[in-house]
Design goal:
The protein has about 160 residues and is of the alpha+beta class. It is built from 5 helices and 7 strands; from the N terminus they run H-H-E-E-E-E-H-E-E-E-H-H.
Length: about 160
C-alpha cells in the first residue's frame, strides 16, 4: 500500500514537473494560471509579490498550493503542509531525484532543466518550485529571509 501511495505521489509530482508546476509554466499571468487551476482561490499581496493560494489534498495531507507573481508573471510556486507530512514528501522527492543532505538553513535542493525544487524542513515545511534563472539570482539566504518574514507575519497575525 505504501508503495502504491508513493507511486501516486511520484506520478503527480512528475506531471507537475513536466509542465514546470501543475500544468503551468514560468512567466504565465495570473489569469492564465486561474484558467488552469480554477477560480476557487485566495489572493493576497506580500511585499512586491502577489499570491494565488488554492487548497488541495495530496497523499491524504491537506496542502496549500501557492502561485507567486511579480509584475503579473509567475516566478515561484509551492506546496505547504503540516510538519507531519515532511517524511513522506521528502521520501517521494528523494526516490525520484536522489538523496540530498540538508543545508545549514534546513533545505534540500534538486536542480532540473527547467525547475529547481527546494524542500524546507523547518517549522513551516513546504516544497518550492523555481525557474533556474531566478534561483541563480536568489541565494538560499533569501529563502531564509522569507521564512523569517513569514514567522514575523504569523506572530503579528496572532496579536490581532
Amino acid at each position: 500500500m505504501k508503495k502504491l501511495l508513493l507511486l501516486v505521489v511520484m506520478l503527480l509530482l512528475a506531471a507537475s514537473i513536466s509542465a514546470q508546476f501543475r500544468g503551468t509554466e514560468w512567466g504565465m499571468t495570473k489569469e492564465e494560471v486561474i484558467k488552469i487551476e480554477g477560480d476557487d482561490y485566495s489572493e493576497f499581496p506580500w511585499g512586491d509579490s502577489e499570491h494565488l493560494v488554492y487548497k488541495d489534498e495530496i497523499l491524504g495531507y491537506d496542502v496549500d498550493v501557492d502561485f507567486v507573481f511579480l509584475d503579473d508573471t509567475l516566478y515561484r510556486a509551492s506546496y505547504t503542509f503540516d510538519s507531519d507530512g515532511v517524511d513522506i514528501f521528502r521520501s517521494v522527492l528523494e526516490d525520484k531525484y536522489g538523496k540530498k543532505s540538508t543545508t545549514k538553513s534546513g533545505f534540500l535542493y534538486w536542480k532540473l532543466d527547467e525547475t529547481v525544487i527546494s524542500m524546507d524542513l523547518g517549522p513551516y515545511p513546504g516544497i518550492y518550485y523555481w525557474p533556474p534563472v531566478f534561483v541563480e539570482k536568489w541565494k538560499p539566504e533569501q529563502l531564509e529571509k522569507e521564512r523569517l518574514q513569514a514567522e514575523t507575519y504569523e506572530e503579528d497575525e496572532d496579536k490581532l
